[in-house]
Amino acid sequence: MDPYIPFCGTPPVPAELWSRWTLDSALLLGLAVALAVGMRVAHDMRLMAVGWALAALLFVSPLCALSMALFSARVAQHILLTLVAAPVIAAALPRLRLPALPMAGLFAVLFWGWHAPAPYAATLQSDLTYWAMHLSLTGSAVALFAALRAAPERGLAAAGLTATQLTLYAVMVTLAPEPWHAWHEVHAIAFGLSGLADQQLAGALMWVAGGAVFMTLVGWLAWHFLRDDPRPRPAC
Predict the structure, then answer these.
(1) In a structure prediction context, what are the per-residue pLDDT tens digits for the chain, which is 236 residues long?
(2) Residues 67, 130: contact at Cβ < 8 Å?
(3) Residue 107's closest CA among 62, 169, 189?
(4) What is the pTM of this model?
(5) Which of 17, 50, 69, 119 registers the highest number of CB atoms within 10 A of its CB?
(6) Is 174 part of a structural domain of the chain?
């Protein structure tokens, strides 16, 4: 039996990286269907197009192939997908009255679950599992940001929970004494990184980039909360 080849292909070496665009027909068809559905339900079609283009680029561009070699590239892909593309898509949708805290809890469970060693390894061995990871992470992130957008005055706790769990994961990844994912430990060498250095880079990306996104988000939610607070303010 031939060995399984992950969806984004075999891990690349640096010299071939920029030629590794993923133009799989099933992927392109799926993206086209997603765009058609998104445009049909969107409140703001321009924002939907921007969010879709960001998400599509993460799977079509060489970043997809690079994520097969480097854990830091997979984490960068997930940061861009869940913390950049997802809120843009959420902003394009009609306002959805979703409970913010349960959505934050769902996103946390999926994020930690999929990045645990065994489920993560399974995404490198099955296309079905690979897409289950990405669709569930993206869907839960869109739902979370839609909930925060619909009721920013009640979203502070949910945003704080999400920021805390992402920071905790980033700290654990960065400070771990050994790599968590044997697959990347083998393939990072071609890029001049040890498995541990690659993992530390992944943690740093999440710590800095994820932290910046949620510091901005918490500030925005706090501003809305104070602006809409009905309680009288003391006279000066």
Answers:
(1) 456 788 999 999 999 999 999 999 999 999 999 999 999 999 999 999 999 999 999 999 999 999 999 999 999 999 999 999 998 999 899 988 899 999 999 999 999 999 999 999 999 999 999 999 999 999 999 999 999 888 776 777 888 888 889 999 999 999 999 999 999 999 999 999 999 999 999 999 988 887 777 677 666 656 655 665 444 544 44
(2) no
(3) 169
(4) 0.89
(5) 69
(6) yes
CA distance 5 to 68: 10
How many domains, in total, are found in the chain? Answer: 1
Flag whether 39 is in a domain: yes
Range of the domain at 92: 14-227
Distance CA 176, CA 131 (A): 27
User: What is the Cα–Cα distance from 233 to 236, expressed in whole angstroms?
Assistant: 9
Q: Does the residue 4 lie in any domain?
A: no
Residue 48 lies in a domain: yes
What lies within 8 Å, CB to CB, of 98 at 6+ separation is 143, 146, 147, 150
